[in-house]
Amino acid sequence: MxxxxxxxxxxxxxxxxxxxxxxxxxxxxxxxxxVVAKSRFWYFLKKAHKVKKASGEIVSVNEIFEKKPLTPMxxxxxxxxxxxxxxxxxxxxxxxxxxxxxxYACYQDMAARHRARFRSIHILKVETVKDKDVxxxxxxxxLEKDIKFPLPHRVIRPSSKKYVQTFVGARPNxxxxxxxxxxxx
Length: 185
Prior knowledge:
Number of helices: 3
Structural class: alpha+beta
Number of strands: 8
Mean pLDDT: 91
């Protein structure tokens, strides 16, 4: 599945003599392209209101872009998904750069943990969550100030090409017991 984009789809029931200006319905939908976004729009609109594709029209489809796509943020996602045993509501948190990345991570996570397919997952709401309001411990651990990531498997390379040897008598030691390097962010 290609990466997801966020689309704003606005549609309505076709005007009739009885109702010349029908009500507009707007949805924010995550889909790989605008064709799938329109299809999902009709799927959700048919479930929520008595409007189907044959008797309705799409007014506009716009792609929504992130204001700050290079700033990591916490996202809370409310979803409803159909499993083999029933329909379940769920809240999940992700730390990503954009809303699209967070929703993509959610789809991948649901596929891995719950074997849920794209068609059976409904994204209800996506919101940014402040650091103090984060609920999940696996996201809280990423919010610490002095976070470090170990780099244990370090292959020592020669400083210049003249020190490169084709055949060496011993295997390289990549596990440094006396000195583990850390990367700080």
